[in-house]
Amino acid sequence: MTIQKPIYNRLALIGTGLIGGSIARAARASGAVKSIVATARSPETRRRVAELGFADQVVETNIAAVEGADLVIVSIPVGACGPVAAEIGPYLAQGATVSDVGSVKKSVLDDMAPHLPPHVHFVPAHPVAGTENSGPDAGFAELFVNRWCILTPPEDADAKAVERLADFWTALGANVETMTASHHDLVLAITSHLPHLIAYTIVGTANELGEVTESEVLKFSAGGFRDFTRIAASDPTMWRDIFLTNKNAVLEMLGEFQEDLSQLTRAIRRGDGEALFDHFTRTRAIRRGILQIGQDSAAPDFGRAHGPLPTAPIPAPYSSDAD
Amino acid sequence: MTIQKPIYNRLALIGTGLIGGSIARAARASGAVKSIVATARSPETRRRVAELGFADQVVETNIAAVEGADLVIVSIPVGACGPVAAEIGPYLAQGATVSDVGSVKKSVLDDMAPHLPPHVHFVPAHPVAGTENSGPDAGFAELFVNRWCILTPPEDADAKAVERLADFWTALGANVETMTASHHDLVLAITSHLPHLIAYTIVGTANELGEVTESEVLKFSAGGFRDFTRIAASDPTMWRDIFLTNKNAVLEMLGEFQEDLSQLTRAIRRGDGEALFDHFTRTRAIRRGILQIGQDSAAPDFGRAHGPLPTAPIPAPYSSDAD
Fold first, then answer.
1. Roughly what angle, to the nearest 10 degrees, separates helices A236-245 and B273-292?
2. Which residue on chain B is closest to A216 by alpha carbon?
3. Fewest Cβ atoms nearer than 10 Å: which of A201, A283, B29, B114?
4. What domain range is B215 assigned to?
5. Number of alpha carbons in the 13 Å side-chain half-sphere of residue B131
6. Cα(first)–Cα(last) distance of chain B, in Å?
7. Is the residue at B305 inside a domain?
8. Can you give the residue ranges of the Prephenate/arogenate dehydrogenase domain (chains A, B) (predicted)?
């Protein structure tokens, strides 16, 4: 069901993983584009995309994909964006908008911009949404609903082109915000990159302990650890590129984190219960803020399902005591 | 509906928060006990427990609660367990089992044991289950289903008393494992205490940055940060006591974590993509292990709900381009 006039005629998707595949599904479901042409690097992925049918057409090359497209979205690990821009640059249509979905924006801007001709609009974007799953099967149309999409247009960007891309993301259910690429990279360093780094670290630490077995770590993970494992299961290539390309902001946030961790460590070592209690009380308020603005599930435990109580009677050898 | 013969006649619950309140609901629903008497420190909580009706009787003092009880479970912050043991010790019934639900076991054993008379069985326990919510309203009967409950009986504990308490927890849906108090404290330091400390730290760090506003942190939290905020919203008193009483194991695990974090930090600083990729690939496998043994939801994003796409047509000023 088309619910609105198309915002673009022809969307070319380079990359069809969790994000690219979700864009295709959402763009079609919302009627935000008239047609979708998709491509992916590997023949297996292209075959799978054709089977899933979320694009009108699956082509073999990036160059074939961008032909006649008025919106091109590159949805691949940020380290690969520069070479792809160099490849497609000469084949982009007059007035087309070129965008991406990378989690780092300054390096994408620097890598892609030099390869794009003056007759296209380059408007980098980052939808802050995702799950721990990867690949064309992982996507779904509702992924961006009520999530934020950050646009980081260059200073000289065409205002109308930016607005048009904002409308596209709005049609996909997202809220749109605009900021500079550098500020984006700092904001995401704390809200996304550092949490991932910490999660990757602690999950690795738990796996390599001599005194606690892996089986124990898995069994007793409900004590808190399992919340970290979800994001530490994210795509390794994507995350390698993020840390390589947003190095400075990540190291800066890591420095702040280390200072705060030292403070709490000192409080533990000294037995300073008051300092611990005060800190733990403050952090509760932040969780409340996230729930209030609808950026997480308010259901306890993220709304995880809890199974029913056992129904089969278990042996009760204590009846003599209990009766 | 009673599904089995009662394992104990009369359960006395001292403390009626998330864990105590869930024990009461589960013990009643499963028929694991004949009757439940509960008490709590504050008159407001006792009133609320009486309203909620998950205990057969609500009494004003710990001493009144334990009278005639063959199972006493102390469900309060671990720092308060010693004084309560001293208070109830002289009033415990012959042959009663005394247990707790504390997240630290060595200090609870040391604090409570000296106050308990030789005619009772002391079997400390730790159900590794919970949510970020606190108080008598937060509990529910299914909280322990398919979670692990760790028993840490002293070396000279009566085997039958231990088995009986294990059956009680099994009736509440839990899997039961037995280990020493010291080993428990080490296992939980990595699976629960360190993750909480890290989460409390990073949530605090994010809140105090000069360059990124609190509003930005909240809005873009879907990038990973929000997963940390859930456990950083846990009860501050409980967690203060955990870090004060399990200091050595927490500091040991923190040391391991710091070494690993230094290694990843160095890889980022040096641009060593291979080291990052290898690490991130290993941590994926751990997530799979947790899903395989049913200790977390396999649904993407913890099964968080995603709202529908917008249905109201948005203005499409680009029809001339798109048609």
1. 140
2. B187
3. B114
4. 184-298
5. 27
6. 65
7. no
8. 9-298
B86 and B166 fall within a common domain: yes
The radius of gyration of chain B's CA atoms, rounded to the nearest angstrom, is: 24
**A174 and A188 belong to one structural domain:** no
Closest chain A C-alpha to B60 CA, distance in angstroms? 25
For an interface test with A, which of B286, B295, B319, B323 has the most A Cβ atoms less than 10 Å from its Cβ?
Answer: B286
Smallest CA–CA distance from A311 into chain B, residue: B3
Measured between alpha carbons, how far is B319 from A33 in angstroms, rounded to an integer? 11
pLDDT tens for the 323 residues of chain B, in order: 445 689 999 999 999 999 999 999 999 999 999 999 999 999 999 999 999 999 999 999 999 999 999 999 999 999 999 999 999 999 999 999 999 999 999 999 999 999 999 999 999 999 999 999 999 999 999 999 999 999 999 999 999 999 999 999 999 999 999 999 999 999 999 999 999 999 999 999 998 898 899 999 999 999 899 999 999 999 999 999 999 999 999 999 999 999 999 999 999 999 999 999 999 999 999 999 999 999 998 899 888 888 899 875 555 445 434 43
Please list every residue in chain B whose beta carbon sits closer than 8 Å to the beta carbon of residue A193. Answer: 223-224
| A113 Cα to chain B: minimum distance (Å) | 23
Beta carbons of B148 and A222 less than 8 angstroms apart: yes
- Rounded to whole angstroms, the Cα distance separating A161 from A70 reads 11
CA distances from A128 to A41, A102, A145, A184 (A): 24, 10, 11, 11
Residue numbers in A near B102 (CB within 8 A): none
Contact B228 A223 (CB under 8 A): no
Q: A209 contacts in B (CB within 8 Å)?
A: 190, 253, 256
Is B255 domain-assigned? yes
Which residue, among A287, A297, A321, would best test binding to B if mutated, counting the most B CBs under 10 Å from its CB?
A: A287
Nearest CA distance, A206 vs chain B (angstrom): 6
The CATH number assigned to the domain holding A75 equals 3.40.50.720
Question: The dihedral of CA A280, A284, A285, A290: what is its sign?
Answer: positive
